[in-house]
Amino acid sequence: MIALNQTSRTPIYQQIIQQVLAQIACGLLRQNQQLPGVRSMAIDLGINPNTVMKAYAELERDGYIYSIAGKGSFVAETEQSPNLLHRKKLDEIKESLASSLPYGVTKEELLAIVEALYREEESV
Amino acid sequence: MIALNQTSRTPIYQQIIQQVLAQIACGLLRQNQQLPGVRSMAIDLGINPNTVMKAYAELERDGYIYSIAGKGSFVAETEQSPNLLHRKKLDEIKESLASSLPYGVTKEELLAIVEALYREEESV
Amino acid sequence: MIALNQTSRTPIYQQIIQQVLAQIACGLLRQNQQLPGVRSMAIDLGINPNTVMKAYAELERDGYIYSIAGKGSFVAETEQSPNLLHRKKLDEIKESLASSLPYGVTKEELLAIVEALYREEESV
Amino acid sequence: MIALNQTSRTPIYQQIIQQVLAQIACGLLRQNQQLPGVRSMAIDLGINPNTVMKAYAELERDGYIYSIAGKGSFVAETEQSPNLLHRKKLDEIKESLASSLPYGVTKEELLAIVEALYREEESV
DNA sequence: GTGGTCTAGACCACA
DNA sequence: GTGGTCTAGACCACA
User: Fold this and answer.
1) Residue B80: predicted pLDDT
2) Is the model's pLDDT at D12 over the cut of 70?
3) What contacts D87, CB < 8 A, 6 or more positions away?
4) Rounded-to-integer distance, Cα A53 and Cα A35, Å
5) Which residue lies nearest E12, CA-to-C1' measured?
6) Are the beta carbons of D97 and C107 separated by less than 8 Å?
7) Among A18-22, B53-57, B107-111, which range has the highest average pLDDT?
8) Using alpha carbons only, how large is chain B's radius of gyration in Å?
């Protein structure tokens, strides 16, 4: 369920976090659903269990998942998680677009990109 | 001419690179124009000359500037730099937007962000 | 595995680059093989880790090796590296010879040098 | 008579030295022939007179030229200059070729390069 | 352990 | 003055 890019600059534990969050945001992971075990995911991905631990710990710290000793890790029950993640993503996008204005990007270009994006989507 | 964010996790030398590129892209820095010296920029920004050197070295390796020991560093002569940078930025944006679709971002939301962005711009 | 010439005016980090490339070109270093760590090589060569880092960083920028923070540096997977390096070297030689023609170097002299070179080789 | 490459990594004063030597080696500059004045060459090349001075000083130190205060600089009378330069160049070539053997360059490839070089020459 | 960033500061060649 | 190399050493995140 997780696809790692070992050579990427993005740390592995971050990649795990991002993908778990994306799956929560899009509904692929639902409330109280159990996540793969630390050891099993580590084996699946061919990485160190500590790395998975680190990802889960951060997800738990931020309230997206909860862990029960001896049972495993589960998606948190907070209704708003998907919405919250959605909103955070929008903020991220806004910031990223704002930072690219100094490069001379025009409104028309951005609108064209957005249109193209969803045209591709529809045809898929 | 360069504004650093010391708290950001983006390395300082990368921030310098990005801002120099932005200034080339938007025409603020022109062909063959001399850049601030390694030492003088370091003093201005309150950082170590090596850090500026690292930024300049990478900009030179990528062909955006050229350095002549004993004379200084200058914006490269490639006519296309601004256009190329502009296009690269658009590709970056496209990729970044595509990667946020799994979060359930809608077309309307993106269009709204773009509109808002340029409304702010105009009023400035 | 690396032999430095401390008195040469060729920078140390360049010497490292050249020798790593030569070892890739001749097959001594193979795909995905791990390179010595930045620190261990620095100690072996009696130089500063930063100098090794500089060499590795440039090798990575040029696609010959890849580094994963926390794991190490490895020879890149590009099949063609050896051939490409080989061809580049030939181009270099051709250019260097062409530039020495103005000195009145004759074909016979060059042929003699080449013959001598491989006669020595064989006897080794 | 001198063609500079301002952006080259080779220092300007070295470029001057190399080109003067090449011209002595190939007979373009003859014994006791007067070299361009320091100032006039500096103006021609658009560089600092000190840089030309440095080149001439090194040429004089190595015995290739001599200077007479108030008159100018002249090609030295040593008969052997051209031969000596010729021999030095051959040594350089030998060394450079030797250093490229680790890249897996074969005798056949070198012979082919030499042949090609003089075939082009002839046709010119 | 690994690589990556950064400082402080020396020293060099070049213009 | 300029850029370029290098040392010594700290500190960080990651595996």
Assistant:
1) 79
2) yes
3) none
4) 12
5) C9
6) no
7) B53-57
8) 17
Closest in C26, C97, C116 to D104, CB measured: C26
What CA–CA distance (Å, rounded) separates B13 from B47? Answer: 10
List Cβ neighbours of C107 (8 Å cut-off, separation of 6 or more): D114, D115, D117, D118
C56/C2 Cα distance (integer angstroms): 13
Cβ of B94 and A117 within 8 Å? yes
Phi, psi at C34, each rounded to 5° = -80, 135
**pLDDT number for residue A81:** 73
Give CATH 1.10.10.10 domain extents, chain C: 12-75
Which residues of chain A are at the B interface, by a Cβ-Cβ cutoff of 8 Å? Answer: 22, 25-27, 82, 85-86, 89-90, 92-94, 96-98, 100-105, 107, 109-111, 113-118, 121
Residue D56: CB less than 7 A from any atom in strand E:
no
For strand F, is any atom closer than 7 Å to the CB of B40?
A: yes
CATH fold, domain D12-75, is: Arc Repressor Mutant, subunit A (1.10.10)
Give every CB contact of residue B119 below 8 A, 6+ residues apart in sequence: none
Q: What is the pLDDT of residues C47-80, one digit of tens each?
A: 999 999 999 999 999 999 999 999 999 999 887 7
- Comparing alpha-carbon positions, the chain C residue that sits nearest to A9 is C68
- CA of A7, closest CA in chain C: separation in Å? 7
The distance of Cα C40 from the centroid of its chain, to the nearest Å, equals 19
What ranges in chain C are assigned the alpha helix state H?
12-25, 38-45, 49-61, 81-98, 107-123
- Contact yes or no, D with C (3+ CB pairs under 8 Å): yes
Tell me whether residues B85 and A101 touch, CB distance under 8 A: no
- pLDDT of D100-124, one tens digit each? 888 889 999 999 999 999 887 777 6
Q: Find the residue closest to F6 using CA and C1' atoms.
A: C51
- B78 pLDDT band, cuts 50/70/90, is confident
Q: Across all residues in chain B, what is the average pLDDT?
A: 92
